[in-house]
Amino acid sequence: MHLPDGIIPLDQAIVYWIITVLILCFFFYKFRDDKTQTKDMIKIAIFSVCCFILSAVQVPSPLGIPIHFFLIPVITLIIGPVKTLMVSFISLLAQALILSMGGITSLGANFIVMGFIITITTYVFYKIFIELNESVAIFLATLISIMFATFTQVAQLIIAGAMNFESLLASLVPFYLFISIIEGIFNIIIIRLLKDMKPELLKEGGIIK
User: Which is nearest to 133 in space by CA: 72, 192, 83?
Assistant: First the structure.
């Protein structure tokens, strides 16, 4: 899902960057009043490193194409959406600079898809489905957030004139639907393990109760 430089026209990339800067300004505005800034900065640093490393690991899949997990949904559940916005930006920037995953001009577009959309939709749909069941809420929030991100990227590529709608749906949707299902299951397991082994981590700023 990391779009490289050159896929998005420069004028569109600038628009995505402006939106990204506005989102980051919102983060710093909210973070300014945070009474636990030092502790939260450490969390952001730790989760940024984890997201950078683990989301870059490619895993073989039955689809014949290696996959990598986003981790943004589970990080949102653990530390909350505001801090996750910065975690996602830092990890995407590091991946672009160090691993050549994505690019610099396309970083704004990638952040909107993988950082902003996944974070916000995970939060919203978890809150919606938590009334049913926690495991169901974790799974559906993960699945829906990744699919929202997929359709957002489809829209970006269509606007950029990179591919047609039918080709994008046929290639991206089944692939990321598979990833979202697997990641949703893993996220349920991760949250349950944290509840048993490190429950205080979930109580300090996350949305899992």
Answer: 192
With a cut of 70, say whether residue 86 has pLDDT above it. yes
136-to-127, 187, 194, 200 alpha-carbon distances in Å: 11, 11, 17, 22
pLDDT band at 63 (very low <50, low <70, confident <90, very high): low
CA distance 157 to 132: 36
Structural contact between residues 133 and 34, judged by C-beta atoms closer than 8 angstroms: no
Domain residue spans in the chain?
10-203
pTM of the entire structure?
0.90
Contact of 51 with 91, CB cutoff 8 Å: yes
Q: Do residues 57 and 173 lie in contact, with contact meaning Cβ atoms separated by under 8 Å?
A: no
CA distance 151 to 5: 20
Q: Which CATH class is domain 10-203?
A: mainly alpha
